[in-house]
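Please fill in the sequence for the structure shown.

STRUCTURE ENCODING:
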């Protein structure tokens, strides 16, 4: 019951932070669309699309948090945390799609020349975006790290990519505004924006993909798990350690060798000690299954 209450509190915290980000993204997208249109800046319009895609992922995180925080049930004995993984990967692919659209439009219009360079309003909006999105990133990332939410951390990187993408937008719009003959900088800036987006998308999609294919923990983590198990009195050897990630946490099963002459009760008590000790360490482990085997002397 205590664990369920904790998950509910974390889910509420995720929604609180994400709702704030959603409202900020919608306002920023509107400001940048208006500034990009009236300021004649393709880069800022591309940046506005990026902010709008942030709103899409905000909604996915808010809706998903109602499901992945549910406790295990008969149909989902291991819980629902893989839903968070799916939402995380969705965030990454939305970013990737936005980047492809931006770079395609920028390259296809690279030879075009506008009637006038971007206006000052576009430059001001780009600077405002950097300040706002960097603040959203820091806040969302801090909460995501605190409650170990991969979806919230991914969404934080979505905010950071928006802030970073606005930096080349500032230079591109500012350069084209100061030097009208360099209007091509606006399209170049849009291409640079997409590079930041691709980088953020990869950092989000790859860890989630590894989780879906049941990639195990690094050798260093497995070695620490083995060391903890071997430190328990009565454990003669450890082997067959298997791990898999569920969101940002690990599920572990391992085989422990004990004296074959001890009772079943004593072997069971040793297994409980191994399990409790692994869970108590800072290893991000949420579940441990210990298989007891008798040591035959070989």
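FILLED IN BY: designer on duty
SEQUENCE:
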């Amino acid at each position: 019951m205590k664990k369920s209450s904790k998950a509910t509190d974390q889910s509420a915290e995720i929604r609180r932070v994400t709702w704030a980000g959603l409202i900020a993204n919608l306002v920023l997208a509107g400001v940048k669309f208006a500034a990009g249109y009236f300021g004649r800046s393709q880069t800022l319009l591309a940046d506005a699309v990026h902010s709008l895609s942030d709103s899409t992922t905000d909604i996915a995180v808010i809706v998903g948090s109602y499901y992945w925080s549910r406790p295990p049930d008969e149909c989902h004995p291991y819980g629902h945390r893989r839903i968070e993984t799916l939402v995380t990967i969705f965030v990454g692919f939305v970013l990737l799609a936005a980047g492809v659209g931006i770079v395609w439009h920028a390259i296809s219009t690279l030879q075009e020349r506008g009637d006038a360079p971007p206006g000052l309003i576009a430059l001001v909006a780009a600077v405002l975006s950097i300040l706002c999105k960097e603040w959203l990133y820091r806040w969302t990332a801090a909460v995501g790290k605190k409650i170990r939410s991969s979806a919230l951390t991914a969404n934080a990187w979505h905010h950071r990519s928006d802030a970073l993408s606005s930096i080349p937008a500032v230079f591109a719009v500012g350069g084209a505004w100061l030097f009208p003959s360099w209007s091509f900088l606006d399209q170049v800036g849009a291409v640079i924006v997409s590079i930041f987006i691709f980088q953020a998308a990869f950092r989000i999609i790859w860890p989630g993909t590894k989780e879906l294919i049941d990639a195990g923990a690094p050798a260093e983590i497995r070695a620490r798990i083995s060391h903890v198990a071997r430190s328990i009195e009565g454990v003669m050897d450890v082997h067959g350690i298997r791990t898999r990630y569920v969101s940002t946490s690990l599920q572990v099963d391992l085989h422990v060798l004990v004296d074959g002459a001890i009772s079943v009760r004593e072997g069971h008590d040793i297994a409980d000690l191994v399990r409790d000790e692994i869970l108590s360490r800072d290893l991000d482990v949420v579940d441990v299954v210990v298989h007891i085997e008798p040591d035959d002397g070989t």
